[in-house]
Structures are given as structure tokens and as C-alpha cells.
């Protein structure tokens, strides 16, 4: 089933409460920009920050030219502060570790080759993929953050140092720009819009070398797109238009769409229009992941989405559990015709694999015990003078019933469901070198 995800500020806030929701971001801006505080004396509530930005971003017919010019100058000043605040809050978030459910969510996106559309400026998704150890199966390269955007916008690459990984993964479309993207303000050609590789990561919070960035991308500032500036150069350049066109195509093609932490504010006419065109009047399953979903559900029904096709889930973690369960229950049917003589292996890529050492049942769930996670070749080779336990696929099939989940447990107590399967054959290795590969939504163990 083709699936698309739409990610809003609520997703980043769920990853780390340090990442602000929209009105919170506006009030943080007010605290730093005196003129913004003077023009919004009561603060921002109920999505008002986006409406306020919209009025600043475009010339208004009730204002004189010099007033509109003054508003636009304030608008640009506010964008600079938005970039600084989100960057500061992201650095605070990166002092910790990504939640386990986020690893699993990215694994579900990865194994389904999903289209992921986001309006968030932060790069927490990119940093998490870097430590999640997914890759092209069976021997392809590890998936890296540089593959997520498919080079739209392009990444700056110094001369003579070009290298591109082939490790395919889900596609990430950042429709409102990103902390790692820069441009010459007002460039309607899109030629100056480029991404700068992010420094640091989880457990290693740091910014890149700004002097080096300015030397490589001279005269360019942050490219972060306000949600309501539909008539400005933010949207008229070909790079942004290509991203939005690709997002619309992905939504129209999807049989299931998940709106995670996105509330579809009334001021965001551009996105609302795209969703109406993509979802209205056709059969499509829509998951709304939001602690207060009623207004969004009402708008979707008004767009033409059948109420019976909408499922609401209050938290992102709950949704990951539910989505993982839906996916995992299909695996039993896929394994029904598997070769029972193959040995069992758990792996997310050739860089993260482990042998299955035991299969046992807990209620309606089949659980797997595994050895230490290492690389594929180490896991499957025969070590002399050691007894090697190899569990066969037949053992799993004896326990597994139609529609049941298979779950792998890790030494730290984390669990992940098996969400995909594959095969691996090697002429030298344990058993006869023929393996059934069970792919979990996430894998835990020593970093490789």
C-alpha cells in the first residue's frame, strides 16, 4: 500500500519538547524582537503567529507603501530570529538521544519507501537516520541523510570531493525550507538555493563552520519559508515549485496518508489547497495523529474525505505502535511460503545483523532472541572451535499463526516488530549459507 506522511511542528515537539510549536515560536520571537512585541502586544494564540506573519510578508491594500516596506523589513528580521531559535532549540534537543519510537517510525518509512512531506525547519529526522543503521538490502550501502532529499535542493559539494551514497531510503520533501538550506534572498531563479551538510548529531550537538559556509556560499542567508507567503519569491522559484509539485503527486498517488503533528492552520491556504486537491473526493485512508484532532477531522470531511476512512490517534508513540502492528501482521502471510530449511537472521542492512538464537511465544506474539548485533559477514561466518547455534525458519513457522506479530527483543529492553523480509545467500558460512532475513523497524546494539 503506497503511503505518504505529512509532518508538522507537533512531530518535532514530540521528539523533543525543546522544539517549539508555532505560537510558542512566535512568542519566543516577540521576546527577542522589540518591534514584533510592540505589534503583537497580547502575544500569539490559536495560530495567530502565522496570520501575523502573513500580513507582514505581503503588501496589504489598506497600508501605504512605506508601511508595507516597514512590515516586510520586520518580516525578514523575524525570519532570522526563527532560524536562530530553532537552531538553538535543536542543539539543546541533540544533547540527548532520539526516542526509540522515532527509530521505529523511520524504519517503517524506510521499508515502505514512503514519501515524507514536512513543514519543519529542524533536521532531527536527518540526524536520526544517520544513527538508525538502515540500508539497501542485502548488500547495498547504508542509507544516509544525504539521500533523503534526492538533492532537491542540491547539497554544496567542494570541487574534487564529490561522493554520493547509493543507499536508497524514503524521500523527505521539506516544503518550508530547512536549517541546513541557504539562498540569496529574493532569488526567483532558485540557482542560489543550496543545502550545507549538517554538523554534529545526537549526543554531539554543534553547529557547522559558519566562516567556511559563508566562503562556500557567499552572500546567502537561511532559506526558511513562511507558511503564508504564497505570492513571494519563496514560492515562485523552480526549486520550491518542484518540491511542492512532487509532494502533490505523492499525496495523489498514496492509498494511505498520515498527518502527524500537523493541524492544517486556516492561514496556510497553500497547503490546504494541495490537500483538498489530493485527498478530496477519492478513496484514501487518512490517519490523524493529534491530541486534539476534531477541527482537523472536520476540515478533512469538508474537503470530501469520508469520515469512516479517517482514524485518529492521540500521540505519535501510540501511532508508531499501531502502524508497526498493521505492518507486522502482514509478515506472517509472507513467511507462510518461506523455505523452512533456511537459517534465521535479523538485519536492517549489511552493517547491522544478528543471528536468531531462540523463538518463543508470549500470548499472541512470537518473540525472537538474538546474538550481539554486528555486520552481516561477521554474523554469518563460521567461527572455528566454537559451538554455533543456528535456528531454522522451520522453528519460526511452527510457532507462527496467520496475522500474528513477530517481535525482536534487545538487551536494553527495547523491542521492534518485524516489518519486512528478505533472503541472504553466501557460499561460506554457518549452516549451508542460506538465510531468511527478518527486517525489524529498528535495530539496537553496538554502533558499527
Structure description:
The chain has 448 residues and is α/β, with parallel strands linked by helices. The strands form three sheets. The chain has a six-stranded parallel β-sheet with strand order 3-2-1-7-8-9. Strands 10-11-12-13-14-15 form a six-stranded mixed beta barrel. A hairpin with a 5-residue loop joins β13 and β14. α2 crosses α5, α4 packs across α5 and α6 packs across α7. It is globular, with a radius of gyration of 24 Å. The mean pLDDT is 88.
Structural features:
single chain; 448 residues; alpha/beta; Rossmann fold; six-stranded parallel sheet; six-stranded mixed barrel; 16 helices; SIR2-like protein
Map the helices and strands.
Layout: E1 3-7, H1 9-15, H2 22-32, H3 34-39, H4 48-57, H5 65-93, H6 100-111, E2 115-118, H7 124-132, E3 171-174, E4 177-183, E5 194-195, H8 210-216, E6 221-224, H9 233-236, H10 238-253, E7 256-260, H11 269-279, E8 285-289, H12 294-303, E9 310-313, H13 316-328, H14 331-335, E10 343-349, E11 352-362, E12 365-370, H15 376-380, H16 393-399, E13 405-409, E14 415-425, E15 434-440
Parallel strand pairs: 1-2, 1-7, 2-3, 7-8, 8-9, 10-15, 12-13
Antiparallel strand pairs: 4-5, 4-6, 10-11, 11-12, 13-14, 14-15
Amino acid at each position: 500500500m503506497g503511503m505518504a506522511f505529512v509532518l508538522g511542528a507537533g512531530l518535532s515537539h514530540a521528539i523533543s519538547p525543546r522544539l517549539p510549536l508555532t505560537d510558542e515560536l512566535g512568542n519566543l520571537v516577540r521576546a527577542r524582537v522589540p518591534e514584533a512585541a510592540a505589534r503583537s502586544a497580547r502575544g500569539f494564540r490559536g495560530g495567530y503567529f502565522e496570520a501575523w506573519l502573513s500580513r507582514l510578508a505581503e503588501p496589504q491594500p489598506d497600508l501605504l507603501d512605506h508601511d508595507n516596506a516597514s512590515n516586510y523589513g520586520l518580516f525578514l528580521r523575524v525570519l532570522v530570529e526563527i532560524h536562530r531559535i530553532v537552531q538553538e532549540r535543536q542543539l539543546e534537543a541533540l544533547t540527548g538521544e532520539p526516542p526509540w519510537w522515532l527509530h521505529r517510525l523511520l524504519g517503517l518509512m524506510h521499508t515502505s519507501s514512503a514519501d515524507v512531506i514536512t513543514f519543519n525547519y529542524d533536521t532531527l529526522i536527518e540526524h536520526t537516520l544517520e544513527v538508525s543503521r538502515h540500508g539497501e538490502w542485502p548488500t547495498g550501502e547504508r542509507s544516509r541523510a544525504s539521500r533523503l532529499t534526492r538533492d532537491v535542493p542540491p547539497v554544496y559539494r567542494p570541487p574534487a570531493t564529490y561522493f554520493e551514497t547509493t543507499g536508497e531510503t524514503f524521500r523527505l520533501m521539506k516544503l518550508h525550507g530547512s536549517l541546513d538550506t541557504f539562498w540569496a534572498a529574493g532569488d526567483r531563479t532558485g540557482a542560489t538555493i543550496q543545502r550545507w551538510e549538517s554538523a554534529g548529531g545526537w549526543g554531539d550537538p554543534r553547529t557547522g563552520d559558519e566562516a567556511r559556509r559563508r566562503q562556500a556560499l557567499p552572500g546567502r542567508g537561511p532559506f526558511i519559508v513562511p507558511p503564508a507567503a504564497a505570492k513571494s519569491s519563496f514560492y515562485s522559484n523552480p526549486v520550491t515549485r518542484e518540491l511542492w509539485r512532487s509532494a502533490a503527486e505523492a499525496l495523489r498517488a498514496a492509498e494511505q496518508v498520515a498527518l502527524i503533528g500537523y493541524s492544517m492552520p486556516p492561514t496556510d491556504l497553500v497547503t490546504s489547497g494541495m490537500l483538498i486537491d489530493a485527498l478530496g473526493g477519492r478513496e484514501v485512508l487518512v490517519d490523524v495523529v493529534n491530541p486534539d484532532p476534531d477541527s482537523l477531522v472536520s476540515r478533512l470531511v469538508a474537503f470530501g474525505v469520508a469520515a469512516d476512512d479517517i482514524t485518529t490517534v492521540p500521540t505519535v508513540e501510540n501511532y508508531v505502535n499501531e502502524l508497526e502492528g498493521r505492518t507486522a501482521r502482514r509478515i506472517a502471510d509472507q513467511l507462510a511460503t518461506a523455505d523452512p530449511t533456511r537459517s534465521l537472521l535479523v538485519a536492517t542492512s549489511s552493517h547491522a545483523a544478528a543471528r536468531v538464537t531462540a523463538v518463543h511465544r508470549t500470548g499472541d506474539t512470537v518473540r525472537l532472541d538474538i546474538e550481539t548485533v554486528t555486520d552481516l559477514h561477521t554474523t554469518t561466518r563460521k567461527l572455528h572451535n566454537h559451538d554455533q547455534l543456528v535456528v531454522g525458519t522451520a522453528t519460526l513457522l511452527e510457532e507462527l499463526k496467520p496475522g500474528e506479530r513477530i517481535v525482536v527483543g534487545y538487551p536494553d529492553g527495547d523491542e521492534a516488530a518485524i516489518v519486512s523480509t528478505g533472503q541472504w545467500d553466501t557460499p561460506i558460512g554457518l549452516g549451508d549459507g542460506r538465510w531468511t532475513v527478518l527486517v525489524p523497524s529498528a535495530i539496537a546494539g553496538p554502533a558499527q
